[in-house]
Amino acid sequence: MVFRKLPGVSASGMGLRLSQKFVFLLFLSGLVTLCFGALFFLPDSVRLKRIFLSKTETQPVTVGSGSENDAREHLKRPKEQEHPRGMTSAKGETSTKLKTLSRKPSVSHEATEERLAGGKAQEDLTLPRSKTESASQKATSSDHGGNSDTFRYSKFKRCLLKPPLGRDNGKPSDPKTNERREKVKEMMKFAWDNYKRFAWGKNELRPLTRNGHIGNMFGGLRGASIIDSLDTLYIMGLMEEYNDAKEWVQTSLDLNSNGEASLFEVNIRYVGGLLSAYYLTGEELFKRKVLELGEKLLPAFNTPTGIPRGVINLGSGTSWSWGWASAGSSILAEFGTLHLEFVHLTELSNNPIYTEKVMNIRKLLNKIEKPHGLYPNFLSPVSGNWVQHHVSIGGLGDSFYEYLIKSFLMSDKTDDDAKKMYYGALEAIEANLVQKSPGGLTYMAEWRGGILDHKMGHLACFSGGMIGIGADDGAPEKRQHYLDLAAEITHTCHESYTRSATKLGPEAFRFDGGGEATATRLSDRYYILRPEVIESYMYMWRLTHDPKYREWGWEAVEALEQHCRVESGFSGIRDVYTMTVSHDNMQQSFFLSETLKYLYLLFSDDDLLPLEDWVFNTEAHPLPIVRKSCMQDETQDKTASE
Ligand code: DMJ
Question: Looking at ligand 1, which atom is closest to the CA of residue 399?
Answer without folding.
Answer: 6
